[in-house]
Task: structure prediction
Amino acid sequence: MKKLINDVGSVVTDTLRGVAAAHPSLRVDIENKIIFRRDAPRPGKVGLVSGGGSGHEPLHGGYVGYGMLDAACPGEIFTCPVPDQIVEATTGVNGGAGVLHIVKNYTGDVLNFEMAAELSGDEGVEVMGVLVDDDVAVRDSLYTAGRRGTGAALFVEKIAGALAESGAPLAEVARVGREVNARSRSFGVALTACTTPAAGMPTFELGGAEIELGIGIHGEPGRARAPHRKARELVRVAMDAIDDDLPLSGETLVMVNGMGGTPLMELYIVFAEVAAYLEEKGATAARRLVGDYVTSLDMQGFSVTTCALTDELARLWDAPVETPALRWGR
Amino acid sequence: MKKLINDVGSVVTDTLRGVAAAHPSLRVDIENKIIFRRDAPRPGKVGLVSGGGSGHEPLHGGYVGYGMLDAACPGEIFTCPVPDQIVEATTGVNGGAGVLHIVKNYTGDVLNFEMAAELSGDEGVEVMGVLVDDDVAVRDSLYTAGRRGTGAALFVEKIAGALAESGAPLAEVARVGREVNARSRSFGVALTACTTPAAGMPTFELGGAEIELGIGIHGEPGRARAPHRKARELVRVAMDAIDDDLPLSGETLVMVNGMGGTPLMELYIVFAEVAAYLEEKGATAARRLVGDYVTSLDMQGFSVTTCALTDELARLWDAPVETPALRWGR
Amino acid sequence: MDTRFFVTWMEEITTAVHAGRDRLTRLDAAIGDADHGANLDRGFTAVAEALAARPPGTPGAVLVLAGTTLIRKVGGASGPLYGTAFREMGRALGEAPDVPVAALASALEAGLAGVRRLGGAEDGDKTMVDALAPAIRALARCAGEGGEPEEAFAAAAAAAEEGAKATVPLVARKGRASYLGPRSAGHEDPGAASTVLIVGALGTAAARRRPRTG
Amino acid sequence: MDTRFFVTWMEEITTAVHAGRDRLTRLDAAIGDADHGANLDRGFTAVAEALAARPPGTPGAVLVLAGTTLIRKVGGASGPLYGTAFREMGRALGEAPDVPVAALASALEAGLAGVRRLGGAEDGDKTMVDALAPAIRALARCAGEGGEPEEAFAAAAAAAEEGAKATVPLVARKGRASYLGPRSAGHEDPGAASTVLIVGALGTAAARRRPRTG
Ligand SMILES: Nc1ncnc2c1ncn2[C@@H]1O[C@H](COP(=O)(O)OP(=O)(O)O)[C@@H](O)[C@H]1O
Ligand SMILES: Nc1ncnc2c1ncn2[C@@H]1O[C@H](COP(=O)(O)OP(=O)(O)O)[C@@H](O)[C@H]1O
Ligand SMILES: [Mg+2]
Ligand SMILES: [Mg+2]
Ligand SMILES: [Mg+2]
Ligand SMILES: [Mg+2]
Result:
């Protein structure tokens, strides 16, 4: 394993030192592993807290700032944060208007955020949660852990963040966050596995012409192994899965996301096919992101996330945002 | 070789289709392979044109827009653009105030841009050039091709672009571009080679614990093969090389750049060490970029680029910019 | 079993988890996210440190401290689940200074109830429950028959082992492995495998406490 | 040699470069950026198309069109260099409808001068010059001795080949390979290798134009 690290044990801490040095707009509590907006807490503003395992950079630390998150709690690599950390972030961003937890639907994340919400409540902070579960590769059912949360986390953070910035109350911010999630769908494809520093070798082995369809964001294998094929055909598999679950139509927010090791060039090639697919369905790529936004360390592959916009959601998407990884309007 | 492409022959064109679909602020001439600012030419404004081989995304197409380039000419993968293409871009952005060519120092780039400058002159466009040669891994001498142009291209484009946006004349814009280059230095390290679609296999083979020191941005091997080591030590090798060539001091613009396949997490770990090194030398990382800015397809590794700022350069760096890959102040 | 025994149990778990770290991670790499070994190693190392720093006065306090530490340090799914299990066990033991096997079995039952409540897993969902539940049944049975703790622990360990092995053919219905659907079959559940280490450490703790002669 | 011969020469280069594409790319991967094969294949394919679309009337016009097309289509270092070489050759031939070997040798000399002027490479800098210069010398020598074109072409091809092989131990001082410093030694220069194909195609063109019987 060749990685740009100092020690396997200090990967998250060393990352946070770099984030602190790179972004003066953030305040990084390295001991408790929390990335705060420098001006948090903002009196009267609903605080937004998200978090999850590390290794998905820029998620979530890259989305802390004006118009988006107030704090992010990175856990160890692919391991969600612990309750203490989340409580510390929650109380630290509470400006008296309550705090929204944005949680990706994984057993661990849900359990740890639930515990933290309870403990924060004990400390007098009103907490509501938005559960993100956009991944159509996983079939939802009463008897499973449900669908995974992936790319839509970013959409929820941006749009709920914009509403919170405008001074809306907690229930409203939670409502819009849930609406974004309900209107969002994702599907991911891996060309290679990723290597966690702790494991030191790829999480799975793929042949030279094999890919994984329906992957999550933790280097886990997908729903099926399949032969590699042209970008156009891979996009069709992903978009068909999304369209089957929630038919595409109208103004759509679309993200073509790299998994960390994919050249940007290839993401643009994928985006061209995604845009063509949407057009075929009579939908339009009204808002677009192409790049590494929710990654899995050094994995090669891509995911597509769509969100069926309303006027309100489009307006909130367009509202100014100023974070390390997403910035416009300021 | 597993890549997200349709055909090896259509990689650049398909990328441009994606760029066009993703960024309505750009006008993409797919046939001639030119990415224009939608509002080019701007009467009275000096036009900025750069270009080079594809595979370095977001360089250069990602830097087309307000406050930066007016047009970018992507060549085939790792192959500089041809004169016709550059002439077309040059005449297309000429608003009557002349055009600046920003050229990375490689034999091919220099020859093709020189031919294009001559031909554009024939068509009545005043052209000046800035040659970027920041890579300290290559020793400059009368008997060699000279130092390579790498990360500083982005600094020149941003800073010269800001001055051009303010209405400065061509000679001034060229002067500031050359000053940026003279004050900039880079050094790169590869953990893995990259795979070009045409070759279909890695450009070189590295053992599981070997790295290449002093690489360029075309997947070529570096000046020396060496054992892999901690991020802190790798940064010391890179920074010592830079500091030996141009001692670091004062307010410094610093970029820690990924080569395309490096997780952002690792780039932050590298940045933490770079910031610490600068501090040791009594310099400060006054302006910072951490991410994929000048890449080599799917290569894993990093480069550091520094620029010793003056008040003027810092002010121009801070000026508003609105491009797909660099955006602030608007 | 006294307070010292429970501290020793935690130490033995720490040792076993540390030694089994890579295997747990490999199992998790196959159907999860390759962190189960690292998670528990980090967690139980912290448990050992916490116990050394603030030695508790009762068996129940040992388990509550262990559980709380796991919740604080592990993250992931296994942190809150194992953490809750130990906390519930500790609460069930109350202030008792000495714990017979039967009481330990009921405490484990309370811990398992906590896991079920939190995670919603049923038997056969391919989780830690599939190793823990049979282990507790074996322990309770032996306690009822009035045997030596060592025998009861051996029976519990064997049952946990068997339960974990039995997760191999199952299709996961809870946790991260469930995302794989049918592809989760053919692999042992990492949480069930770590439960084997935890239950197995009862026996090594007892052996260490009463070294056999000759 | 007439106009037809020069068109055939270009076709033979196109064929040889296409067949040698992977080898050229491999050579360029070792000390450059792995595109020399793709560059020339693209360039000469375009040359063949251009010649078919607008068949020129003189040998000189064939070479100018070929050179211009290479400049327009190849990019990289080799595009302007080879492009200039062919353009300068074509200009040197002027309007002549038929070109004896001696005139071809002088034209190649003019092409080489263009390459030197543009790229600044000296003999022994490990570039295409190291194959082209000895080939021209061989051609001129044979022309002086008044032999058959076939013999002259064979001598030129052998000299190019030898020149290219002789680049192996050299340390590059021009082009991309120079960035490698001493590490560039031990590899054949890709541009010298493609010059071997270009010079060698003179012989195959001649053979195709005058098929030997029995
Ligand atoms: N809902 C659940 N109920 C019981 N056990 C579960 C549940 N979800 C997961 N587990 C257990 O947790 C183990 C995974 O733990 P770990 O890898 O540490 O966490 P994560 O899955 O968050 O990475 C699984 O192997 C399984 O035994
Ligand atoms: N200054 C120069 N003078 C003569 N030939 C050169 C010079 N620079 C490069 N070359 C030739 O060009 C070849 C490389 O061509 P190519 O790979 O197509 O271009 P690039 O190096 O731009 O990728 C080298 O092998 C060398 O023979
Ligand atoms: Mg995990
Ligand atoms: Mg090239
Ligand atoms: Mg796990
Ligand atoms: Mg080359």
Remarks:
- Helices of chain B lie at 11-22, 83-93, 107-122, 152-165, 170-182, 231-245, 264-280, 311-318.
